[in-house]
Amino acid sequence: MILDDAQIDRVIEMAWEDRTPFEAITYQFALAEKDVIALMRKELKRSSFNLWRARVNSGVSQKHLHKRNAEIDRFRCSRQKSISGNKISKR
């Protein structure tokens, strides 16, 4: 799948968010975890990529559903604008 600039920006944004699991990115963009890692490696500076990987692999991140607390049943903050089909809804 070829992504345009806006989609790449959204994938990067979702990848940086601690609560957004890789499965949500796969659902919206058909990118597996390894594809997201490759995209992040390509698009970010080396130091930024290293910080992101360290954060994903730390106990802080909830990027993997199997590591996620069962009480978390959403992948976005309740204060975040509604997102549907990767388009930010207008209020």
TrEMBL record:
Pfam families named among the record's database cross-references: DUF2805 (PF10985)
UniProt-listed InterPro entries: CHP03643
GO biological process: methylation
Alphabetized UniProt keyword annotations: Methyltransferase, Transferase
Keyword Transferase (UniProt): yes
Domain of life: Bacteria
GO molecular function terms listed in the Swiss-Prot or TrEMBL record: methyltransferase activity
Protein name: RNA methyltransferase
Organism: Kaistella jeonii
